[in-house]
Amino acid sequence: MGAHPVPAANEVGCASDEPIATLIRHWFPLWTPPAGNARWLKTRCPFHDEAHASASISYEYQAFRCHGCGVKGDIIGLIREREELAFGAAQRRAEEILGGSYKPVPRESARVTRRRAFGEPRTVGSERAGPGRQVPPWLR
Ligand SMILES: [Zn+2]
């Protein structure tokens, strides 16, 4: 009984487990993801050099935006911008970088017809970014 210990996703200290944080740390290993429960958390922007926090990150939306240099996007958006990839290639990059912690964000476009490309979907432990998740309007 009392089976597997499930890590509390909201706990301070788990921020670096967030896919969006993992992605940014893949590019900027020295960047420290902010912890907290707010929808948007202030952080220093790793994409440009700055002394003050002018960027925000959201674990709820799995997105990042910077008011200083203008970098913003969700996981795929950031990969596309940073590595100059098309959408499909960026999805593959996300899987490479994030492994099982990355789940494609369902887009409401009707042209998601290539889902068999990656083989079986992986089973992921953290399910808190549930099916109710949507791309916020400011990311479109
Ligand atoms: Zn910036």
From TrEMBL:
Pfam name, any one: Zn_ribbon_DnaG
Membrane spanning residue stretches: none
Highest taxon, organism lineage: Bacteria
InterPro entries for this protein: DNA_primase_Znf_CHC2 (IPR036977), Znf_CHC2 (IPR002694)
Renumbered residue ranges of the record's region Disordered: 108-140
Domain named Zinc finger CHC2-type: residues: 41-95
Protein name listed in UniProt: Zinc finger CHC2-type domain-containing protein
